[in-house]
Amino acid sequence: MKLLVFARPPAAGKVKTRLAREVGDDMAACLYRALLDHTLREASASGLSVTLLLAEPPVPGQWHPPPHLAWELQAPGDLGAKLSAAFASARASGWSRVMAIGSDAPGLRRHHLLWAAHALETAPAVIGPAADGGFWLLGLSVPAGELLSDIPWSSPRTRSALETRLRHGNLRYVLGPCLRDVDTFEDLAAAWEEGAFPETAAQVLGRTLGLRW
Questions:
Q1: Backbone region of residue 78 per phi and psi (left: phi > 0; alpha: psi in -120 to 50; beta: other values)
Q2: Could you read off the pLDDT of 135-160 as tens digits, one per residue?
């Protein structure tokens, strides 16, 4: 089972721009790095074959992927094009079942990934729904083809549009647990109140925003 983690190098001014409007570029980057590190730890601990897909090359002297972790650059285009290219590349490398996740869901734990991997053994598709109407995980055991083209990305209708596309293609899918991505200050506050943050990320929040955990 191949697990693809989509991410950006955690550089100030380049990540979590909506959140940065409320907390500043440096603080947003600090939080994103904590979330990315958390995601990579949980992904590695799952035992799945993990590849990190970066939107931009790492900046020397600032941040670099863990030495044990394979990484590549994302394909050009919108998220649909990036996902489609990544799924196709993984299948060309011999992986018949492939999952992709983002890097900003504080509630993500390795058992979520293992559940999805198990579900994908018998279902053509698995979706991890996100609270904002998108998804935090997509798994496919069939070629992506045109499945991800013309989807309204970054929209409250993203997941529903994907589900409609799957149904029209007569592809059975399984829905996993709903997790919350952190894109805005409202997301951050809600995730904090829910206790979704792992201890390491909570410590970052405590230091940067003066919150108690």
A1: beta
A2: 999 999 999 988 999 999 989 999 99
Tokens describing residue 34: 């904590």
Query: Which pLDDT tens digit goes with each residue over 32-42?
Result: 998 999 999 99
Burial of 130 (0-12, 13-18, 19+ CB in 10 A): buried
> Which residues are CB-contacts of 67 (< 8 A; sequence separation ≥ 6)?
none
Token digits for 149? 């083209």
Instruction: Encode pLDDT of 50-66 as tens digits.
Output: 999 999 999 888 889 99
Where do the H-state alpha helices sit in the chain? 17-23, 25-45, 79-92, 110-119, 158-168, 185-193, 199-209
Query: Is there a contact between 173 and 166 (Cβ–Cβ < 8 Å)?
Result: yes
